[in-house]
């Protein structure tokens, strides 16, 4: 499998970042990731409630190619995380204010809570 | 002349804001406006160095329809300003971090300084 492309954060222009954020589903993914304290929550398969698998793949790629997220492939699972350290270094304060703005949007698509494995 | 449409800031979704920011020319306009201390600098005709008149009109409309800027028509002149109070109320911190991010982009189109009218 070809390794996934992740741009050097210094090559990312602000307009690329904003283009990647210009979609409610991608903002919904970002908000869910910002809240993911458990590794399991960031499993790509947890986002199936938001869009069809092919559309989700498209949105994941958009976020990754803009330098916003990192995707890790482990066996048959894919895990997403926000490139917080990179983003905070290159654009201080931007990520937090974007997430806060997105959280204020009542119409933003919400990722369903993953089912509890343990009772 | 039909009055220009300016959306209620509470009707603006974060994704609309980011879509309007997803262009280097519009970010360049925003950075120039953020720096406009003199009224004359915000005259729309000062932006002619950035793009053709019809393209500029398109970009001005995108920014205005996303709730980011206000356009005032006075005689044959049009004046642009950032809706800072509205944006800061609805999305605290977002505008400043967007402008700071845009200012860090060395490839951002810069608006030429207006010619000094007085020596």
Automatic annotation (TrEMBL), chains A, B:
PROSITE patterns: HTH_ARSR_2. This is Helix-turn-helix transcriptional regulator. One of its GO terms (molecular function) is DNA-binding transcription factor activity. It holds the Pfam family HTH_5. InterPro entries: ArsR-like_HTH, HTH_ArsR_DNA-bd_dom, WH-like_DNA-bd_sf, WH_DNA-bd_sf. Residues 6-102 form the HTH arsR-type domain. It comes from Bosea spartocytisi. Gene3D superfamilies: Winged helix-like DNA-binding domain superfamily/Winged helix DNA-binding domain.
